[in-house]
Amino acid sequence: MVDLKAQYHRIKPELDEAIAHVIENAHFINGPDCRLLEQEFAAYCGVSHAVGVANGTDALILALRAYGIGSGDEVVTVANTFIATGEAILLNAARPAFVDVDEASFTMDPRRVEKAITPRTKLILPVHLYGHPADMEPVLDIAKRHGLPVLEDAAQAHGGAIGVRRVGSFGHSASFSFYPGKNLGAYGDAGMVVSNDVDFIARLRQIANHGGGSHKYDNVVVGTNSRLDTLQAAIQRVKLRPLDTCNGERLGRAAAYTNALLGIPGLVLPAERPDVTSAWHLYALRVKGNREGLEKHLASKGIATARHYPKPIHLQPALASVGGKEGDLPVSEMLSREILQVPLYPELPFETIARIASEIRAFLAG
Ligand SMILES: Cc1ncc(COP(=O)(O)O)c(C=O)c1O
Predict the structure, then answer these.
(1) What is the pLDDT of residues 228-241, one digit of tens each?
(2) Disulfide check for 158: which of 11, 121, 184, 278 has CB 3.0–4.6 Å away?
(3) 264 CA distance to ligand 1 centroid (A)?
């Protein structure tokens, strides 16, 4: 689905130098690259502050903790997402209130948000899925009316934008994953939270570093060890520079798929909403007919595919305590039965796209 070696070889000298620099200086924990990446990534998102953490799951868990979310609280979110979005809520002893998604953008349907708000609601958590920014304006309007903060789960959407504003700058805060396959992927686990709220960022930084006070052994709240590794920060600083170029290359490849796949009966192609720039993390087809047959056909031709996600998280056994059942979220459930991703990454050759598209056409259009 991705070729991480191709990406490494594009910027190998800069990456090797950055890695060697960290090792030579033995700045493994909280080294200068950590602070610099926080500043650079916050500026990239169009916000003033950021805190690096160990991964995108911790970014969500710790952000919810920094809001003081706990037992009895509810968080309005979506089930058409990776399990981490739900885990983070449950690990804070709160309850996800799932709303369905908009079929065209795969993201939170703003028309459903207001109905999900109760006196227990403490936060709204939209997810920018596959790189497509959620429809933030109506979500922010509702949040404002109810006095609720919005945390964007931007794990899949580094560089995605609505108008000229990048994701991460809409909510009160946003969480990112730097998992290797992401648009801005580390060489291991890493994550970040961004926000304009200095106090929120300070609370989060404290929790992520053993609840530390002004002195190393001054522990003022119960925290944890979820620091961003200096090696990963150094790598991310190098990889941040060509991120827009790489996202542009993803966009070009998404357009090539769309051109080559237009007009195939039973196939719905992903599209950007007007005024939205997707980060094109994944190219998500919807197969109305024989998805399994298509998967098998492509596998027989050596073409990788994936289902992100085969089950919406309200139906995952891990979240059974929330009481979700089949039929609760018809659009999310429909998408899980139809969705199929084909390879998409900046270095993907256009000839490969043409070959994948012609195999899809051959199978579905006979
Ligand atoms: C939407 C979403 N949220 C959160 C995460 C968690 O990130 P990580 O794998 O870095 O913990 C992911 C990772 O795939 C994700 O896709």
Answers:
(1) 999 999 999 999 99
(2) 184
(3) 32
Tokens found for residue 8: 């490494």
Of all atoms in ligand 1, which is nearest to the CA of residue 84? 4
Which single residue is written with the structure tokens 């911790």? 58
59: tokens are 């970014």
The confidence band for 188, taking pLDDT boundaries of 50, 70 and 90, is very high
Asked if residues 194 and 41 have their Cβ atoms less than 8 Å apart, the reply is yes
Regarding the beta carbon of 85 and ligand 1, being less than 6 Å apart is answered yes
Burial code of 242-273, b = ≥16 C-beta within 10 A, e = fewer? bbeebbebbbebbebbeebbeebeebbbbebb
Instruction: Report the Cα 261 to chain-centroid distance in Å.
Output: 26
Indicate the pLDDT class of residue 214, thresholds 50, 70 and 90: confident
Q: How far is CA 42 from CA 38, 45, 162, 196, 237, in A?
A: 6, 5, 17, 9, 12
CA angle at 177 for the pair 171 and 194, rounded to the nearest 5°: 35
Largest CA distance in the chain: 69
Tens-digit pLDDT profile for residues 272-300: 999 999 999 999 999 998 999 999 999 99
Going from the Cα of 127 to the center of ligand 1, the distance in angstroms, rounded, reads 10
